[in-house]
Amino acid sequence: MSDIDGRAVAKALRAEVAAEADRLRGEDVVPTLAVVVPTDDEGTAWYVRSIKKAAEKEGVDCRIEHLKAPGRDEIAARLQELSADPAVHGIICQTPLPEGVTLAELGWYISPFKDIDGANPESLGRLAQGRRTWAPATSAAVLELLKREDLVLEGARAVVVGRSTVVGKPAALLLLNESATVTVCHSRTKDLAAVCREADVLVAAVGRAGMIGADFVKPGATVIDVGTNPTEDGGLVGDVDYAAVSAVAGRLTPVPGGVGPVTTALLLRHTVEAAELSRTRG
User: Fold this and answer.
1) What is the pLDDT of residue 69?
2) Taking the complete model, does pTM exceed 0.90, yes or no?
3) Is 62 helix (H, G, I), strand (E, B) or coil?
4) Which residue, 24, 83, 183, 189, could crosslink 29 as a Cys pair with Cβ 3.0–4.6 Å?
5) Given this model, what pLDDT does residue 234 score?
6) What's the pLDDT tens digit per position in 64-78?
7) Helix 137-148, helix 6-26: angle, nearest 10
8) Dihedral sign of CA atoms 205, 209, 211, 215 in order
9) Is residue 160 within a helix (H) or strand (E), and if so which, with residue range?
10) What pLDDT band is residue 111 in, cutting at 50, 70 and 90?
């Protein structure tokens, strides 16, 4: 078994982003990402700081739009303002959101041309149609890791465990667009382990620590672990029982060091792509 090194993939992506951002800056286009933060959650604050640090290191400007105790209308208005601002190319709305407010409803206020994390429902529709759009960065990271491993996805059997609109559904659509044969599983799937054992590519995005054991994995399969479950000692573990599955899988992403670093790098790549697109749209 070999680890899929997400940090190495992220490093390569960031180098590509830096080169493209430098080219755009030379043509008087400054790739700019706006992150709307409607929460005082410390975990979110740490993540936003890490995005800003990574962005500015690679030549992408990052504007943090911190809203103090906002309601739905205030968040929506700020997203609309940023969508109309020609100096902003990519927009993210961070979670958690105020009680009673959902990202699904706020996503409508992010222009599809700036929706670099796939929050607007229109973006999911475009993805389903195979049209140009940006999938949520975490789901896009799944495909990026598979492609960097030079896996042949055409005709491969893929199983995605989890059906969220942030990871499971868009990851399944991305795999379908690569001509994989895709099964999406969830909490009501009968004999889940047996279904998973059919997979050449298994994507675990269920949000339950260590749920995917060795009996879920076909020998030699590639396993992408999207889980980020906090432990009592402040660490992170995935949805996959790493020790057990590593004895069966052919390739496996670790947690941490797998999907996470690639997700952040893709947010920056999507921003640079949106900046380039803005030139052709005028």
Assistant:
1) 83
2) yes
3) strand
4) 24
5) 83
6) 999 988 999 999 999
7) 110
8) positive
9) strand 157-161
10) very high
What separation, in Å, do the N-terminal and C-terminal C-alpha atoms of the chain show?
Answer: 49
For the chain, the helix, strand and coil percentages under 3-state DSSP, each to the nearest 5: 45, 15, 40
pLDDT band at 282 (very low <50, low <70, confident <90, very high): low
Alpha helices (H) in the chain, listed in sequence order:
6-26, 42-57, 72-84, 103-106, 121-128, 137-148, 168-177, 192-196, 242-245, 259-281
Give CA separation, 253 vs 24, 78, 102, in Å: 33, 37, 30
Can you tell me whether residue 37 is helix, strand or coil? strand
In the predicted model, what is the mean pLDDT of the chain? 96
> Nearest-CA neighbor of 219 among 247, 193, 252?
247
Look at residue 279 and tell me whether its pLDDT is greater than 80: yes
> Helix axis angle, 259-281 relative to 42-57, nearest 10°?
60
Interatomic CA distance for residues 33 and 270, integer angstroms:
10
Tell me the average pLDDT across 236-258: 97
β-strands 2-3, 251-252 pairing: parallel
- How crowded is residue 163: how many other Cβ atoms within 10 Å of its Cβ? 17
Q: What's the rounded Cα separation, in Å, for the pair 2 and 7? A: 14
Instruction: Check: CB of residue 161 under 8 Å from CB of residue 185.
Output: yes
| DSSP 8-class letter at 95 | S
Ramachandran region, residue 38 (left: φ > 0; alpha: ψ -120 to 50; beta: rest): alpha
Q: Tell me how far apart the alpha carbons of residues 69 and 4 are, in angstroms, rounded to a whole number.
A: 40
Closest CA to 140 of 269, 51, 2, 44: 269
Query: Using an 8 Å Cβ cutoff, are 195 and 229 in contact?
Result: no
Burial code of 251-279, b = ≥16 C-beta within 10 A, e = fewer? Answer: bbbbbebbbbbbbbbbbbbbbbbbbbebe
